[in-house]
Amino acid sequence: MGEAFGEACRESIQRLAEIRLKAAQRFGIERAGKQWEESTVLEWAASCLPIAETWDPQTHEEFLGIARGADLTPERLFVMQGLTDIRDHMAFRPEPDTEGCSSLILGRERAEGGRLLAGQNWDLETSNMDYVVLVRRRPDNAPETASLTLTGCLSLIGLNSEGFGIGTTNFTLGDTRAGIHYLQLIHRLLRCRSAEEAACLAEQAPRLAAHYYYLVDANGRGVGLECSGRSAHRFHPEKGRLVRCNHILHPDFKTLEVTPPAESSCFRQERLSALIDGHAGSISVDDLKHFLADHEGGHLALCRHRFPPGDVSTNACVILSPETGELHACRGQAHAGAWERVVVG
Q1: Mean pLDDT, to the nearest integer, of 274-283?
Q2: Under CATH, what is the fold of the domain 100-343?
Q3: What does the pLDDT look like over 83-99, one tens digit per residue?
Q4: Taken in order 257, 27, 232, 214, is the CA torsion positive or negative?
Q5: Straight-line distance from the first to the last Cα atom of the chain, in angstroms, rounded to the nearest whole number
Q6: Which of 93, 144, 286, 323 has the smallest number of CB atoms closer than 10 Å to its CB?
Q7: pLDDT at 240
């Protein structure tokens, strides 16, 4: 599967790999005040590869297949796929990030038809948008999956044929280490059958850097997991919803916080919660598309358009319905992108 993906998208993968390697070097100047040599970035990526191979040989084999098919070294592919984690490990910005994502779990008691929903906006530098793809994988020895990701990347936001779904948002904590990047973790978790199985596995993983993960399954269960490199804390929906953006909420992580919560992250956390709480009656997939397209707050909004600094946009949107096996996704903003519906399994 990896080789087929790499071969089919070779030119675009190579372009994205070059963009992201240069971005890693740029982050060194912006965040650490020093120029990183290309060799420095690649050497650090190389130190993580044996950890990934040991932790999950199956994902690592597919990762190497993508590298072969795309004619890239494994180190360059690791930087391309794990740029967010590498950036957070090697250098911290002195002020809050403008990048972000807004995620939700909507419990059965609030969702239309009594079936749990989950989803998010995925916000990053606008240069990533052209590389957003929807990938179907049908392995011989694991559940079928559909995931939104970037070309040449492992799974980012996905759903499998067992009804398990996962997504992520980023935040920065000072507890980092050599380890697996977040896409390697997500790709492995998409072989799980339940949110509980996935949460236990994620908690024990040798994670490179901090992320929030939301885990949902066909039994209507939802778990939020705030993770640093070495610790993890669980959250569960309250009042029928669990909303998370790009700042930590668990008090035990406060001592690891590198910067205070960004104004946009706090605004989006409150705004998305208010949209859910203020909606009369059950909430449908179309309602969630409307929430994700919300522009209240201008540059702080849930739906983002090339906001400075950093040229940040909503690059993609995803809604998961694990009990029906449906994944809804679009490239770009929720009101502007062409939504695709995929049934998994």
Answers
A1: 97
A2: Penicillin V Acylase; Chain A (3.60.60)
A3: 989 888 875 555 556 67
A4: positive
A5: 18
A6: 286
A7: 95
What residue spans of 71-207 are helical by DSSP H?
Answer: 74-81, 83-90, 182-189, 195-204
How far is the C-alpha of 235 from the C-alpha of 231, rounded, in Å? 14
**How many C-alpha atoms does 318 have within 13 Å on its Cβ side?**
33
Rounded CA separation 236/203 (Å): 15
The two structure tokens encoding residue 120: 């998010």
The domain 2-90 is placed in CATH, from the list 3.30.950, 1.10.260, 3.40.1130, 1.10.10, at 1.10.10
Residue 91, pLDDT score: 59
pLDDT of residue 345: 83
Question: What is the reported pLDDT for 95?
Answer: 57
Q: How far apart are CA 264 and CA 271, in angstroms?
A: 10
Given a contact cutoff of 8 angstroms between Cβ atoms, the answer to whether 342 and 134 are in contact is yes
The vertex-17 CA angle with 16 and 18, nearest 5°, equals 90
Which pLDDT does position 285 carry in this prediction? 98
Tokens 């540059």 map to which residue? 299
Lateral strand order in the sheet of 241-244 = 241-244, 100-106, 117-125, 312-321, 326-331, 340-343
Q: Are 160 and 345 in contact (CB under 8 A)?
A: yes
Tell me how far CA of residue 142 lies from CA of 93, 130, 227, 232, in angstroms: 39, 30, 26, 26
Top pLDDT among 236 and 92 is at 236
Interior/surface letters 4-41, b for 16+ CB within 10 angstroms, e for the rest: ebbeebbebbbebbebbbebbbebbeebeeeebeeeeb
Give yes or no for a contact between 57 and 49, defined as CB atoms under 8 angstroms apart.
Answer: no
DSSP state letter for 92: -
d(CA 316, CA 328): 11
Note the helical H segments in 9-118. Answer: 10-27, 38-55, 57-70, 74-81, 83-90
> So where are the chain's domains?
2-90, 100-343
* Greatest C-alpha distance within the chain: 56
- pLDDT value for 93: 59
